[in-house]
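Design job #97: recover the sequence.
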């Protein structure tokens, strides 16, 4: 919860002052009623008061005052609403290490299968694009609401080459910043980056991610793989096994500086779960919903209740 006018909450200081004033009034009332009466005559001259009924109207009044001051601060709560004009760019690593089979059938194959899960959970009105990269980014599908075209673009991908995450993020950022919605403004956008390691070529990915965050385009990173991944590499006349352990540190930093989130998936089912969560998250946005009217209405109802009780029981407002 947040407040549009938080300084109005300073008025809450009046509540304890009112309570102190009321308690002082009650003590003076008791002293005045018993000052000139001896103890044996008190039951007849100063009989017991109405008990809890004496305080009920004031409790209602004090609660109403607190509610009205709270309403004056214009309280707001964040509400998730469906995105009707959003855009997401999937950025998938196709460098050599993505051929590792520690995630079945391979890191690259699991990425393709899980992308279908992502697309199935993404609202049909959200435009989705696909960009793949090794040492060079390649745009396979511009952001579109034709999700079947995006799914088909995953077919036939092969893992080879080095890793240029910064260049890939720059290319994705260019595509998203040039998009325009029906109102002529850029739609809410995000990048989903899937990779297994640290950038080895091209632009500094942290600097690009920081720019994306400044442009209001968060990068959600998904680190796929384990510490035990290996690939077979041909060196001269021999084929050797090369370890390609997951390196998620840079991906987490990219997500942090761009105001996104970092996820890790060590198997295909975990990757699908992450993609489903991301799709649901990116398919909604949070907007501020003001609660002033309902809080102020509750305060006015309490004032009415307090006044009714006081008039009915004691013939006065307070």
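Job complete. Output follows.
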């Amino acid at each position: 919860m947040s407040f549009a006018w938080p300084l109005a909450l300073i008025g809450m200081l009046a509540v304890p002052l009112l309570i102190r004033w009321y308690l002082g009034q009650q003590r003076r009332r008791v002293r005045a009623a018993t000052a000139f009466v001896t103890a044996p005559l008190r039951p007849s001259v100063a009989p017991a008061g109405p008990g809890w009924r004496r305080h009920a109207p004031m409790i209602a009044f004090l609660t109403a005052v607190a509610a009205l001051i709270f309403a004056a601060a214009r309280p707001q709560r964040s509400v998730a609403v469906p995105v009707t004009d959003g855009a997401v760019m999937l950025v998938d690593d196709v460098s050599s290490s993505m051929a590792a089979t520690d995630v079945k059938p391979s890191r690259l194959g699991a990425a393709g299968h899980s992308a279908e899960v992502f697309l199935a959970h993404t609202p049909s009105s959200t435009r989705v694009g696909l960009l793949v990269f090794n040492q060079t980014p390649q745009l396979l599908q511009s952001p579109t609401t034709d999700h079947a075209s995006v799914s088909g673009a995953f077919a036939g991908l092969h893992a080879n080459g080095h890793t240029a995450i910064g260049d890939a993020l720059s290319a994705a950022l260019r595509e998203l910043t040039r998009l325009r919605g029906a109102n002529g403004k850029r739609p809410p956008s995000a990048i989903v980056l899937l990779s297994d390691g640290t950038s080895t070529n091209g632009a500094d990915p942290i600097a690009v991610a920081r720019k994306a965050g400044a442009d209001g385009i968060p990068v959600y990173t998904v680190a796929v793989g384990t510490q035990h991944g290996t690939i077979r590499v041909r060196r001269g006349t021999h084929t050797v096994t090369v370890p390609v352990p997951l390196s998620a540190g840079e991906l987490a930093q990219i997500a942090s500086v761009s105001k996104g989130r970092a996820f890790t998936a060590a198997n295909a089912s975990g990757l699908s779960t992450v993609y489903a969560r991301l799709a649901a998250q990116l398919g909604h946005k949070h907007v501020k919903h003001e609660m002033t009217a309902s809080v102020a209405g509750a305060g006015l109802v309490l004032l009415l209740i307090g006044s009714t009780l006081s008039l009915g029981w004691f013939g006065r407002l307070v």
